[in-house]
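Bumping with the actual sequence this time:
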Amino acid sequence: MLSRHPTDRPVRRWHTRSAKFGLMLPGKNAASTGFSRLAGRVRRLGLPGQIAGTIAAALLAVLAVITLAGQDGSAGTQPKTPPTASNFTLPELGHKDRIVSLAGYAGKPVIVNFFASWCAECQSETPELARFYRQSHGSTVIIGIDANDSTAKALPWIRSKGVSYPVGVDAHGLGPATAYGVNALPQTFFLDAQHRIVKRIYGAVTASDLRQGVALMDHPPAALSASG
């Protein structure tokens, strides 16, 4: 169940507000530091000078291979394909006879936003999303997911924020919120046309976040396009 953090912020401290899926290759500095540490250990072993020198030379050769591989990308781990978002089907907030389903937007990029009426950061984030949706005239699909909330509070709340995009209800946070690994609100996922997660925002999104996320959704990097 999605718990309410005392400050309505992520339970853990994130090093960055956004998470993009990609590969970070070790740079020269990291490799050089590793070599220095290994060389120091060799010296502390008290080996004869010739043997120590041979081991140090071998380590240097390994360092060169790692550095060159990282520079040209011809060796080492290749970039991973971003994970595909889990499908969901939820009742629509305020319309019990309607459903909100990710599968209903097959072939289209989608923004999925998890929020709740009690969430402090959502007070400013939701109007930003609503404004962005209106200004794009609905050309950018946004799905809101009201998690761990009550309909009695959430429905008038989203109306007061000007929300006109569809909102699904994950009443106890046991559906999509769990599937997407959401343990604190708000969080936003940017999905490309194949519904791969190309960007994730922890905390309130800004107008700049939205522009950057939509750019990735609509024009994923060549590596991602080729992997699909």
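The tokens above came from a reply further down the thread. Residues 5-33, 62-76, 223-228 have pLDDT under 50 and may be disordered.
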